[in-house]
Recover the amino acids of this structure.
């Protein structure tokens, strides 16, 4: 067992963290800007598809290469919170793009990845279903913001207060410890 996540896990983590933060900002801008809406949607759709793909790759890597153990002195409630937040993060990284894809499928809006490459619809056309999924997508986005902030707070606690190697295990650089 190693004290660090493997290189693919670290690359996927930091790449996806950047992409998810960008996605949340783009999503917030989409609901506030009519002038830039179409340009933002053109970014949002393929970025969501890429996040879904990377989340699947990340899960596969995690199953093949389990994460390093948490510190032995970590309180039980923090272990449970860490596990729960990771389940929530992975669930949201999969659910949000899938719900978005389903919403756009039900609304019959194409998801253009690049040029002529378009994702196929995954749900039948239904304006009522599209409207319901829009609410679900929004609720999941708010949940992702909350879990993302909790995850960031925990990472900072491990890095700055506990200094127990948890942050260093996912850091893109090697720790001097």
């Amino acid at each position: 067992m190693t004290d660090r996540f493997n290189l693919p896990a670290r690359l996927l983590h930091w790449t996806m963290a950047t992409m998810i933060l960008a996605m949340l900002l783009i999503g917030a801008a989409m609901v506030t800007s009519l002038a830039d809406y179409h340009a933002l949607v053109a970014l949002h759709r393929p970025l969501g598809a890429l996040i879904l793909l990377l989340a699947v790759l990340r899960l596969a890597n995690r199953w093949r290469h389990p994460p390093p153990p948490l510190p032995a002195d970590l309180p039980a409630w923090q272990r449970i919170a860490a596990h729960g937040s990771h389940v929530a993060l992975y669930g949201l990284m999969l659910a949000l793009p899938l719900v978005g894809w389903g919403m756009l499928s039900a609304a019959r809006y194409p998801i253009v990845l690049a040029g002529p490459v378009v994702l196929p619809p995954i749900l039948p056309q239904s304006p009522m279903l599209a409207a319901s999924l829009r609410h679900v997508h929004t609720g999941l986005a708010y949940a992702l913001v909350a879990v993302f902030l909790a995850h960031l707070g925990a990472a900072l606690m491990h890095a700055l207060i506990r200094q127990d190697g948890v942050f260093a295990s996912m850091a893109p650089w090697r720790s001097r410890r």
Observations:
- The longest helix spans residues 127-162.
- Residues 9 and 40 are 29 Å apart (CA to CA).
